[in-house]
Design a protein that fits this description.
The chain is of the alpha+beta class and 809 residues long. A nine-stranded mixed beta sheet has the order 5-7-6-8-4-3-9-1-11. It has a six-stranded mixed beta barrel with strand order 14-15-20-17-19-18. A hairpin with a 6-residue loop joins strand 3 and strand 4. Helix 2 (16-45) packs antiparallel against helix 8 (276-310), helix 8 (276-310) packs parallel to helix 11 and helix 8 (276-310) packs parallel to helix 19.
């Protein structure tokens, strides 16, 4: 094999054009596949840093009648406390919730995300601190002494990895007593999903956890819903077995207490839940990259087949001189292996570059992208792809080299056909295979392009232009006074048209999910039947700023203030659903039961797609900011010119009021809109790129097949010309072969696309996977370009000189 490799190195040096095309072709396929697999390995295949994570399971609630449960539902403490005592399928059960706070600094406070956890949480997950300890039983009791465990990233970021941090206190907003640091956790510990708080403005389950604080249920409120629950399955126990056991216990609890009726558990493996979004994005892209690799292998196989045909005389002489067929097989295989190894090396270098680019542009599209490493995964996948490419691209040429009949090849003298009918048929099959795979990629790219086009035309209901948003949180002092002064100062700045505070800015995914009773609707028989709505809190200028018209009643006023929540504004979708043939103005809502004073509806605002541009407006409720002031909120500013031009002056005004104020997440609303579509945009760009590469390789393959066909049929073309065939007839002859090749590949490709495009279903909007316009349009466009690739071989066929071609006959 070493001798064969040396021989093939010399042979390839004599034909640098062939070597360069073959190597670059494989490098593109190997680079794309290695890069995407590195993303898959870093995001999907890297296990979370828990002990035996495959045995961990989340236990979210679901309605037993099949209807969707409220986002804020969760479990009651009374329920999971009983599970801890009775379960036989779980080794441990713990409860948790997401938390958000600020480290108070003189130069401006810094936001931190953390978790409330019960005393068994670290034992259940198998987490051990790298410094200090976890919570003791007394610290994890109700109303304990304030203690805190820091995440590794926060420890490094804010405290420079100081190992003397244990025993020190840190100042946290909303805590009267500064908590004492008792431990530091290892790096890369991320959040468990917390559906009960998923609509919070700063909720990011893919971020590293900054801190953990102990939580215990209040004995007075053990029946209140809202806890997230995680469990560790016993050895050999399946999720189905655990779900069956919990279903029995929950049914018993429902019989004992009617408030727990109507809910059922969903025991879901933790790794599956953590990887849900990543799988939806990365697996289709890995499939697309694999198709590009197959197309590249097909192209290289065609090149090696043609090269083998050109070397048939050489193989025949070697066989006649006594070289064994196995030796010829290894010689031809070595050529494919050499090209694959060189192409693989170049492809690995390309993959490193692709991974870096993806990490720059895909931050909002792919979860946990920061954990992707472009080191050994790229090397391993690149080497594996190179070996696979060598097998796929070099095996058929090697077999054909070993089957050469020396008597058949050497019996004719002078120039002869470079390929017989069998060889041409095989090359056509390879080209059709490439065409089919390319069509599948092109259809997928076409569907995503149409999706983005449809989304660009969606009427959101509000105007996103010239709007600046930022998270602004006063962590000390009189919060209401700060907000009023902030609005006065910011509104007076040059270039600012309107300013408002809001909790629930569009397309950030945040709102306040709450359960209410609605006038005219029957009271809920149990807690799980209560109506749940997304709720938002805004100041009086918010609707004017967003250009959301009030269609009935009035907007909020400065006088809508005070501790009592007594006014609200609903959207048109709410009014249409619950008051279809009457005005909603004056109707009442109840948050704490109908025996309490109601909340009056004073206005109806136009519908807006606040949560997702792909979803029609759903019923939602707005409250006056001065009556429902949240802890964390957005300052929203409409400007006359470029929104970012006022950032510095807004910061100065806010710091002048309170130097410790936290100002973060500064974005324009147009940028937020783009981020909300990031996964679709990312998938479209990568798929378009893969399609472009595949198309170029396939067109080169079609050109090569027809060029070889013309060269192989020179004698036939010469005879046809000699007996009177015109150039038009020769042109039609070659075009007919090209048409059969292209048409067969397109038909097979459209059939494959109908199957493969369904993988993209979750990305599509306003277009079906079987959209006939996309299928026909892509097919026609590719056919038109492919026929251009037929032009040069066709033109060459019409210029065959019959005297020159028949000279040796």
């Amino acid at each position: 094999m070493f001798q064969n490799l040396r021989f093939n190195v010399r042979a390839l040096r004599k034909q640098p054009g062939f070597a360069l095309i073959a190597i670059l072709t494989l490098a593109l396929g190997i680079g794309a596949t290695a890069a995407v697999f590195s993303l898959v390995q870093g995001v999907l295949l890297t296990p979370p840093p828990y002990q035996e994570p495959e045995r961990l399971a989340l236990i979210p609630p679901a309605r037993s009648d099949g209807r969707p449960a409220a986002d804020s539902q969760g479990w009651a403490a009374q329920q999971w406390l009983e599970w801890q005592k009775q379960t036989k399928t779980f080794e441990g059960i713990a409860a948790y919730d997401w938390s958000f706070n600020f480290i108070v600094l003189r130069t401006g406070s810094v936001s931190v995300e953390g978790m409330w956890v019960t005393k068994d949480y670290f034992r259940v997950l198998g987490l051990r601190p790298i410094l200090g300890r976890t919570f003791s039983d007394s610290e994890a009791a109700f109303k304990p002494k304030p203690v805190i465990i820091l995440g590794y990233d926060l420890w490094q970021r804010q405290f420079n990895g100081d190992r003397t941090i244990i025993g020190r206190t840190i100042r946290i907003s909303r805590w009267d007593t500064p908590p004492t640091v008792i431990g530091v956790m290892p790096p890369n510990v991320r959040f468990l999903p917390s559906p009960t708080t998923a609509k919070e403005p700063n909720y990011n389950p893919n971020a590293p956890v900054d801190f953990w604080i102990p939580a215990a249920p209040d004995p007075k409120y053990r029946k209140e819903l809202g806890w997230n629950v995680v469990g560790r399955l016993g050895k050999g126990v399946t999720s189905k077995q655990a779900q069956a056991e919990l279903s029995v216990m929950i049914a018993q609890q429902a019989r004992a207490d009617h408030d727990f009726a109507g809910m059922a558990p969903q025991v879901s493996p933790l790794e599956s839940e953590l990887n849900r979004d990543g799988r939806r994005i990365l697996l289709p892209l890995l499939g697309a990259a694999a198709l590009v690799l197959l197309i590249a292998c097909g192209n290289t196989a065609s090149l090696l087949l043609v090269r083998g045909l050109q070397r048939q005389s050489e193989y025949a002489v070697r066989t006649a001189l006594g070289v064994r067929r196995l030796a010829l097989f290894f010689q031809a295989s070595a050529e494919g292996l050499l090209i694959a190894l060189v192409g693989g090396t170049l492809g690995i270098a390309l993959a490193f570059g692709i991974v870096k680019v993806v990490k720059l542009i895909g931050g909002h599209a792919i979860p946990r992208l920061d954990s992707v490493s472009a080191a050994w995964p790229v090397l391993l996948c690149g080497f594996t792809a190179a070996v696979l490419s060598a097998v796929l691209a070099g095996l058929i040429p090697a077999f054909r080299a070993a089957r050469v009949d020396p008597a058949e090849v050497l019996k004719s003298a002078g120039p002869k056909s470079s390929a017989g009918r069998g060889e041409r048929r095989l090359l056509r099959a390879v080209a059709m295979f490439q065409t089919a795979l390319t069509l599948a990629l092109l259809v997928g790219a076409g569907l995503l392009i149409r999706t983005m086009s449809n989304l660009s035309k969606v009427q959101s209901g509000y105007d996103t232009s010239h709007i600046l948003t930022m998270s602004v949180t006063a962590v000390q002092g009189d919060k209401q006074d700060f907000h009023r002064r902030a609005l006065e100062r910011v509104s007076a700045l040059p270039g600012v048209q309107h300013a408002a505070f809001a909790w629930g800015v569009p397309l950030t995914g945040n709102n306040w999910p709450g359960q209410l009773d609605v006038e005219g609707q029957p009271p809920a028989a149990k807690a799980s039947d209560r109506l749940s709505f997304p709720m938002r809190s805004v100041t009086q200028d918010y609707f004017t700023l967003m250009r959301l018209p009030i269609v009935d009643g009035r907007g909020f006023r400065a006088s809508d203030a005070g501790k009592d929540l007594n006014v609200s504004i609903v959207n048109q979708a709410f009014a249409d659903r619950y008051f279809p043939r009457q005005s909603a103005i004056g109707k009442k809502l109840w948050m704490d039961g109908r025996d309490h004073p109601g909340i009056n509806i004073v206005g109806v605002v136009a519908n807006a797609r606040n949560d997702d541009l792909t979803q029609a407006a759903q019923p939602e409720i707005y409250f006056s900011f001065w009556q429902a002031t949240p802890f964390s909120k957005h300052l929203v500013i409409r400007t006359a010119a470029e929104p970012r031009s006022v950032i510095a002056s807004v910061r100065r005004q806010l710091r002048a009021i309170d130097p410790t104020v936290a100002i973060e997440n500064v974005q324009t609303l147009d940028e937020i809109r783009s981020d909300s579509l990031a996964s679709r945009t990312f998938a479209m760009r990568l798929l378009v790129g893969f399609s472009a590469v595949g198309s170029v390789l396939t067109l080169i393959g079609i050109y090569g097949v027809l060029a070889l066909s013309v060269a192989s049929r020179r004698r036939e073309i010469a005879i046809r010309t000699a007996v009177g065939a015109e150039r038009r007839d020769i042109r039609n002859l070659v075009f007919a072969e090209g048409f059969r090749l292209i048409a067969g590949g397109i038909l097979a490709g459209l059939a494959a696309a109908l199957v493969l495009s369904r993988v993209l279903q979750s990305f599509l909007f306003g277009v079906e996977p079987t959209d006939p316009i996309t299928l026909i349009g892509v097919g026609v466009l590719f056919a038109a370009v492919a026929f251009l690739a037929c032009w040069v071989p066709t033109h060459r066929a019409t210029r065959v000189n019959p005297v020159e071609a028949l000279r040796y006959e």
